[in-house]
Amino acid sequence: MSLFPESIIILKNKALEQARPLFTAIDEISEQNTARVLRAFRNHQISEYLFRTTTGYGYGDSGRERLEAVWAELCGAEKALVRTQFVSGTHALSCVLFGLLRPGDALLAVTGAPYDTMQTVIGHTVHTPGSLKECGISYQEISMTADGINIGAIAGYIRNNTKIALIQRSRGYSLRKPLTIEEIREACAEIKKHKPDCICFVDNCYGEFVEVAEPTSVGADIMAGSLIKNPGGGLAPSGGYIAGKAELVNMAACRLTAPGLGGELGATLADIRLFYQGLFLAPHVVNQALKGAIFAAVLFDLLGYKTLPRPDELRSDIIQAIELGSPDKMIAFCQGLQQYSPVDAHVRPIPGPMPGYTDQVIMAGGTFIQGSSIELSADGPLRSPYIVYLQGGLTFEHAMLGILGAASAIARQ
């Protein structure tokens, strides 16, 4: 017996027919990235004895140190900090900003307004105790054009005290395009042309393993992200990372722990094998998530909704934005998706306040790891034009079923 009405099954078959030819390029990238991961594991001689937990201060944690060396190689970086002590991607990003900026310095966001949670860290739109603004750091942002970063405007915004140029790879809660690795390379080159000592800092959330290189291998000085997104492969239970130039990573590490302690401390209380195994699986899991995103783009395009990116567009993050046009449809989408989750399938998501957000947010995510967005999930703030942001899917089959559930829920309205 089919889970869905015949009209949805017909639509599914049509969407699959259009989506499958687009999967070839995704498979090729996944193969290359898997080869890169295997090479890094081999180069750093990953062995079973590294899969042990540590306690107390975490001195001499060889498993942690080797994992960081592997991630640094994959990122084309001098050094990496891969820690369970980061509570979120925002926390990792915040450690970089507070670790590198000093009173009187300026932060320039070259990709427009960042994520809502980063805006509270900066203190730009709302007063936040302990924000960068409260610490005497000024802030400017350059709005993006329809084609991407406004490269021509960068020179006019850079000042003598511009210490960091923030580049957000993913679209966030917006309809702008995510940045490709090549676009990040061009932006970093333009920034360095006008101020060679300006630090190019990339928010890499949702972008890892979508292409065959990471920002720190093409000119970014430092980047940060979350382990319960792409690089954790759906297995990492928590954590985040920072990667880049050794001096900068060390400065950021002192904000995670304390000045003088840096990255030398930090016990791995969780099963570190999950982080290694998750990293090994990450290229394939990202592949599955991207296939789900393409399928969703095709399906909702057939239903007449605006989708970004379009089904055949080049992708540089795992997020699929779908403009639904009403709060009721957003709620129906999330409730329909939730019904096809392995965890909390009986729960009906409703909008509510979230720390760091000014609008109510609805989130669907029956995930094994709380808040994981490499597992199938959808969310968005309830504000016009009512866009739902879909991401993740450990398997394409699950992503497809969840997406069909969301479409069915909207159709029943």
From TrEMBL:
<dbReference type="InterPro" id="IPR009651">
    <property type="entry name" value="Met_g_lyase_put"/>
</dbReference>
<keyword id="KW-0456">Lyase</keyword>
<dbReference type="Pfam" id="PF06838">
    <property type="entry name" value="Met_gamma_lyase"/>
</dbReference>
<dbReference type="InterPro" id="IPR015424">
    <property type="entry name" value="PyrdxlP-dep_Trfase"/>
</dbReference>
<protein>
    <submittedName>
        <fullName>Cystathionine beta-lyase family protein involved in aluminum resistance</fullName>
    </submittedName>
</protein>
<dbReference type="InterPro" id="IPR015421">
    <property type="entry name" value="PyrdxlP-dep_Trfase_major"/>
</dbReference>
<dbReference type="GO" id="GO:0016829">
    <property type="term" value="F:lyase activity"/>
</dbReference>
